[in-house]
Amino acid sequence: MKDLFEKIQELQYIPNYSKHEQIVNGIINAIDEKRISQGEMLPSVNVMIKEVGFARETIVKAYSELKNRGIIESKNRLGYFVSNGDTSQTLKVALLMFAFDTFQEIFYRNFREGLGENIHLDVYFHHNNIDVFETILTHINGKYGMYVISPIPHPKTKALLQTIPLNKFLMFDRYEPIEGDFCHITQEFEASSYKAFVEVADAIKQFDEMMFFYKPASIIPIEILRAYKKFLKDYNIKGFTSNEYKSGSLEKGKVYFTLSNLDLWAMLKDCKAKNFTLGKDIGILSHNDELVKEIVFDGITTYSVDFGEMGRKAAHYVLTREKIQETMPTVLIRRNSL
């Protein structure tokens, strides 16, 4: 490690370089010049104190900055190691999403673009499985400078999320309460769903009944089911729920409401096969808007937040750390299907 200490000492003579910056840039210069390489162990904090003579707080601060930038990592009880030879990046970000559904892809594309080229981004998926969620959080904790997470509604979620420093945490998509003052960019499901149903109540009443495809213990928020049941009762509408759409079961006189794109495409296929007129013979309401729903069958009526804007806002927070605690508006977009 003699070469590393020499690189740090060289920076002591540069005006306006703090001790913390001397360590950070000394290590970066040593990596760039191949004096230390990826996977190599760095001196411990105690060794650094002895060799460079700086305070423990200064060295810990420097190592923390390098960790946040994804250049080094700490391994429990083993020490600090060079984890990345790309020293140009300024931050390492972990993005934990439900799954790579279309609307999640819209969020990702705008988030990735908003971060810019110098931010390292790793993407993980938990698929609404709490065991997977816990495994991922355990694996990534302490390795990133920012954690952008879409949580799971589960009793274990709160404790798992509170292992992450709140100043490095952004909750997105779904809101789950945890202790402390934390940033979030999320959507609301119950009141917004009820409002959307009410806005299309005139069209729904033109049909005989309404069907909502909802599978218990699925990714679909239970708040939407509560809003659906309340709407049926308040507006005296005949309605039912079903676990899934079965191909070929489309019937005239019904309004179908689904959050699943697979169900939606199957319904549209059956609509074409049975020569039904969408918006007249049957009605369809879909959750989460996307470009294809604007185009197919002259348009599918949806209600949704703007996931592109959510992604842009999340990227802005990561870059600026400007406090944000926002519930994004849900908007109904009426089209040909209802």
TrEMBL record:
Residues 17-85 form the HTH gntR-type domain. Keywords: DNA-binding, Transcription, Transcription regulation. Pfam families: GntR. It comes from the Bacteria. Gene3D superfamilies: 3.40.50.2300, Winged helix-like DNA-binding domain superfamily/Winged helix DNA-binding domain. InterPro entries: Peripla_BP_I, Tscrpt_reg_HTH_GntR, WH-like_DNA-bd_sf, WH_DNA-bd_sf. This is HTH gntR-type domain-containing protein. It comes from Emticicia aquatica.
